[in-house]
Structures are given as structure tokens and as C-alpha cells.
Amino acid sequence: MGREVELVELRFEETYPLREGVLWPGRPDLAALDCDPQGKHWGVRRTSGELVSVISVFVSPDGREAQFRKFATAVECQGQGLGSLLLQHVIQQARQQGVQRLWCNARSNQASFYEKRGMQLDGEAFLKNGVEYICMEMQLCPMDS
Questions:
Q1: Is residue 94 part of a domain?
Q2: pLDDT at 38
Q3: Cα Rg for the chain, rounded, in angstroms?
Q4: Which of 4, 25, 30, 76 is positioned for an S-S bond with 47, CB 3.0–4.6 A?
Q5: pLDDT value, residue 143
Q6: The domain that contains 66 carries what CATH number?
């Protein structure tokens, strides 16, 4: 990766500036989720302290499914493997927790990013807040303990 980074667990409020800056510039109302307090929030932080990638994960009450949302990497840091590092961490954590299906509503223009990392299209594209999304999913096998 070239740069020294660390993967950290975050408080949900810490994800908001990056979520807004990357996903919803000028729309802080769309950067926050009502369910944020129930999620797990992860980030990649440079050793300088700068947060450069964030993701939030929400596990279903029965523990069988997990959805990740608000996955954002600073524009100037995209293509450096930081988002991949974060997604791989989420996949590993989900497996360890016995999650069977990991999914997200991805922006359609990012579908190939998820496909390259083992996720598959699930259903038709749809519009939300003027952005086209597609559901991406991955079936997980629990890790051997």
C-alpha cells in the first residue's frame, strides 16, 4: 500500500465527515443513518491520524445476515487498496460471527469493485435520492474455529 495505515473501530459520529465528503457532498442529512447507534463502524486511519476510509455494518437480529452501508474512501486515496482492506476486514468479521449472507446496496457505477471482491449482483437497479443502486451480495461460509 505504500502508506502506513491502521484499521480501527470508530464511533458512528466519526464516520460522518468522510461519508458526507465522498458520498453526499453538502448533504449531511444523507450522511447519517437512524440505525447508526446499532452498527459497528470501521475505518482506515493513516498514522498521521487522518481517517481515509469508513464502513458501517449492521447485523440482522437473527445474526444470519449483515448489511454494510456508507462505505466511503477519500477520493485522493481511492485505488490504493484501502477500501479493499476495509471490506476484507468486514468479510472476515462477518464470517467469524457466523453471518451467512453479506450484502449492500452499491452505487451501480461501483458494481465492478464488488464483483472483483467476490460479490454478485442480486436483483435490478433502483434509484434512491437521485442515485442508481444495485444490491450486491456474498454468501459466507463460517470460518473453521
A1: yes
A2: 96
A3: 15
A4: 4
A5: 59
A6: 3.40.630.30
* Residue 115, domain member (yes or no): yes
Q: What is the mean pLDDT of residues 96-102?
A: 95
Q: Is residue 110 part of a domain?
A: yes
Q: Is residue 144 part of a domain?
A: no
Confidence of residue 3 (pLDDT cuts 50, 70, 90): low
Exposed (0-12), middle (13-18) or buried (19+): which is 70, by Cβ within 10 Å? Answer: buried
Q: Find the domain containing 31 and state its range.
A: 5-139
Give the number of residues written for the chain.
Answer: 145
Neighbours of 9 (CB within 10 A): 9
Number of domains in the chain: 1
* Structure confidence at residue 1 (pLDDT): 43
53-82: average pLDDT:
96
